[in-house]
């Protein structure tokens, strides 16, 4: 069953400076008369799936949202060891968590990764070592758009909403620029160029606010990169930026939440994803690298 969207909305409200450890450190927060806790240790959660269907297994699962017998225990930044007042055999559910939009204070259980369900026995003052857990994409996930730059063509073009982009995206096989596989996407501008904007060739019919919509991707950029949506109503486009990524010297994985942006366009017929930025001609040599782009929804 797909991850409950009402639960997803509730997690969006959680501000988690150090995650939800508050309340776990006090025994009076649990039912029953047990006073000596058992412990659970989770080192990491990895994505393991059929790459022929889901594409790259690149992921950035940072947290574990833990339930015992459907009672919420807490959300924990990994690796984590935490106490539970349980003994005997119980059902553990672990929801893989991410930093939504790459922001530490907006951690959520990612609605497109499957819940991990285990039946385990607890003993007082004994650590249950779950170590490395694995998850898959929820089977109901729809991959509306995938671009890993490994096939012949590229599914991005110069913007038709803001024509005049100084450059387009090319594929590179340089080992200095490729994230994984043979190719990654590369955008470069020379000192005579100061603007680029690319959009998906295809338009996508996306679900409205009742369903989450995310863009996943790996990226590395030495300049700011703005990502958003072009919403089309009767073929007239309205462009809204969702996020601007800051420069990074290393490859990063990000999960961008398009859900509220789409919800603001209830009459839109379809959408395009765009990437762009106005660049300074004195800012050096802009270089943007992209890989493993996925637009996902139920």
Q: How are the SSEs placed, and which strands pair?
A:
Layout: H1 5-12, E1 38-47, H2 51-54, E2 63-68, E3 71-77, E4 80-84, E5 88-99, E6 107-109, E7 116-122, E8 127-135, E9 142-147, E10 156-158, E11 170-172, E12 184-188, E13 195-200, E14 214-221, E15 225-233, E16 236-245, E17 252-257, H3 259-263, E18 270-278, E19 287-297
Parallel strand pairs: 1-8
Antiparallel strand pairs: 1-4, 2-3, 2-5, 5-6, 5-7, 9-19, 10-13, 11-12, 12-19, 13-18, 14-17, 14-19, 15-16, 15-18
Low-pLDDT windows of residues:
13-31
Cα separation of the termini: 11 Å
Task: Estimate the strand proportion.
Answer: over 45%
Main structural class: mainly beta
Estimated radius of gyration: 22 Å
CATH topology of the largest domain: Jelly Rolls
What's the short story on this structure?
The protein is mainly β and 298 residues long. The protein has helices spanning 5-12, 51-54, 259-263; strands spanning 38-47, 63-68, 71-77, 80-84, 88-99, 107-109, 116-122, 127-135, 142-147, 156-158, 170-172, 184-188, 195-200, 214-221, 225-233, 236-245, 252-257, 270-278, 287-297.
Account of the 3D structure:
- The chain is mainly β and 298 residues long.
- It has 2 domains: 5-135, Sandwich (Immunoglobulin-like); 142-297, Sandwich (Jelly Rolls), CATH 2.60.120.200.
- 6% of the residues lie in helices and 45% in strands.
- The chain is built from 3 helices and 19 strands.
- The strands form 4 sheets. Strands 9, 11, 12, 14, 17 and 19 form a 6-stranded antiparallel beta sheet that branches. Strands 2, 3, 5, 6 and 7 form a 5-stranded antiparallel beta sheet that branches. It has a 5-stranded antiparallel beta sheet with strand order 10-13-18-15-16, with no helix packed on it.
- Strand 15 (225-233) and strand 16 (236-245) form a beta hairpin.
- The chain is elongated and about 70 Å long.
- The relative contact order is 0.17.
């Amino acid at each position: 069953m797909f991850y409950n969207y009402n639960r997803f909305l509730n997690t969006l409200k959680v501000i988690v400076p150090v995650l939800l450890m508050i309340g776990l450190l006090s025994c009076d927060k649990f039912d029953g008369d047990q006073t000596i806790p058992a412990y659970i240790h989770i080192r990491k959660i990895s994505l393991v799936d059929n790459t022929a269907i889901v594409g790259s297994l690149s992921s950035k699962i940072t947290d574990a949202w833990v339930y015992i017998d459907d009672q919420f225990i807490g959300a924990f930044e990994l690796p984590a060891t935490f106490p539970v007042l349980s003994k005997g055999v119980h059902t553990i559910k672990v929801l893989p968590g991410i930093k939504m939009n790459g922001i530490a204070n907006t951690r959520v259980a990612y609605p497109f990764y499957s819940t991990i369900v285990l039946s385990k026995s607890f003993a007082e003052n004994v650590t249950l070592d779950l170590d490395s857990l694995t998850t898959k994409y929820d089977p109901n996930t729809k991959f509306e758009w995938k671009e890993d730059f490994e096939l012949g063509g590229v599914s991005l073009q110069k913007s038709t909403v803001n024509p005049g982009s100084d450059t387009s995206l090319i594929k590179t096989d340089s080992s200095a620029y490729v994230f994984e596989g043979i190719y990654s996407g590369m955008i470069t501008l020379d000192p005579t160029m100061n603007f680029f904007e690319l959009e998906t060739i295809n338009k996508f019919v996306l679900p409205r606010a009742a369903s989450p919509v995310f863009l996943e991707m790996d990226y590395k950029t030495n300049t700011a990169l703005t990502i958003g949506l072009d919403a089309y109503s009767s073929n007239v486009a309205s462009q809204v930026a969702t996020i601007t990524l800051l420069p990074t010297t290393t490859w990063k994985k990000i999960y961008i939440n398009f859900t509220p942006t789409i919800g603001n366009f209830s009459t839109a017929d379809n959408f395009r994803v765009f990437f762009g930025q106005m660049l300074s001609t004195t800012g050096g040599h802009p270089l943007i690298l992209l890989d493993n782009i996925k637009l996902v929804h139920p």
